[in-house]
Amino acid sequence: MIKLQYLPVATCIWFLSTFIITYIIAVLRKDVPYFLPYISEAGTFPPESCVFGQLMNLGALIMLFGICVRYCQVKHDIKTKNIRLHPKWNTVSLKLGAVGSLGISMVGNFQESNMLGIHLVGAIMAIGVSSAYLLLQTKISYAYLYARTRSIPKWLFYLRLLLSVPLIPMLIAVLILGGLALAKFTGNSKRWWTEEDGGYTYRIASALLEWILAIMIFLYVYTFKNEMGCIEFEGVCFKINDRKQENDTTENNGKQTNRIKPFSTEKPHTH
Q1: Model's pTM, two decimal places?
Q2: How far apart are CA 108 and CA 40, in angstroms?
């Protein structure tokens, strides 16, 4: 039995550590300038690209697991009438979260120096779609203000509102500023962009906003810590059929079923 209270904390720490580790490796190897490279720019060249890709893939799985846990929690509270919310919002949020998690993996696997188009699509999925997911979670959080049990305080709702509403406008600003920087660039190496190359201020502003965006997203994830304190993970249950049903007319009389939990020391019961 594992308590999931610290899953949001682990998710937040995992991604921020990923960004910092790859940044340090890239700067020490002189693959990027030390002052405000883009997050994924620090994970473009090996060996840091290998570290970045591996950690982002694992992080995407951790994120997706947390999204599924949140979906099940909200689904339970809707079913038990603990909150008043149409189930479609919960379903849509699950789909958006899954797409955002896929985008995180794409950003890690498709470096901008190799496949820029796919990398940008992944970045928009990872940040843009994830931002939409967080906006929807803010709407769901509003329902928890009036929950019969496990309601959230108003300050937490307003904090999530403050963190989620600016995300999409900030992403648009990142893209616009990055485009303006490229349009004004006159140098030879975009990796070693200097003030003399043109568009430098736009580039720095774009990269700074990207870092702030990432921090805001994972701070938002961190805020689910207390809400997941009541959830425990007992493992996945597999069902094993020892006999195949040979005759559809026998109403499962000859069917033997065992349920086994992974990593359990209990032996399956036979009938």
Answers
A1: 0.84
A2: 8
